[in-house]
Amino acid sequence: MKKHLILLLTCLISGSAAWAQNAHFTTAGTIEYEKRVNMYGVIKAVINKDNESWYAPAFEQYKKNNPQFKVLKSTLSFSGNRTLYAPLPDDAPPSNSWFSDMPLAQQINTVYTDLNTNLSVTAKKVFDEAFLVKDTARKITWKITDETRDIAGYTCRRANALVMDSIYVVAFYSDEIPVSGGPESFTGLPGMILGLALPHENVTWFATKVTDVPVSDAQLKVPAKGKATTYSGLKTTLTKAMEGWGEYGKRFFKIYLL
Predict the structure, then answer these.
(1) Whole-model pTM above 0.90?
(2) pLDDT at position 116
(3) Which end of the chain is more exposed for a tag (fewer CB within 10 A), N or C?
């Protein structure tokens, strides 16, 4: 009995060592993301008793000419602990509806993050003005759960968080890519975020493809164009610009600061 137990333990240890030797971890490459915006949900969220006489008919017209989900694509290049998230051009036919100009329906951020120094540099488009936001990376208090799912061929674990005091975030990260990065400004988990959802904002980002290739410094070029500011400075600017916008302005305000 004792010999059998020793043999079993030896096999388990040998198997674990072999797995560790053969395990592959992606430390550089590119990730393709698909952003899906439930436009019907986004529009319904801004309709209230004060504006429904105009918004409701406009919404009905929008539904006749546009699909429920708007799909946008982006890439994340990473090498070591540096990442660059960048939107790809929208190849969908232009919409005549101003609903399509809502910030969630666009891709307004190009985000460079150096996780070694905790530096974040974001080229951000707000209305018709370009800002260059240089600050520390967003600190997020994540709660990791036991739920898992497969995304783009990687096993991912779920984590939940609250950002900006009220925006609920669900993320799925994989420690098979040992980089604490992710789409947009979402970082801080023990692995790459391959799936991200803001359920109450009606938007998701999910990886569709991960390519394990070397990434050059040129592919991780830090954004440099825009009016220089910090997140605190941008918040002050937006507060002044949206003064008097009421609840409608508050929704835009949060999205522009994400």
Answers:
(1) no
(2) 95
(3) N
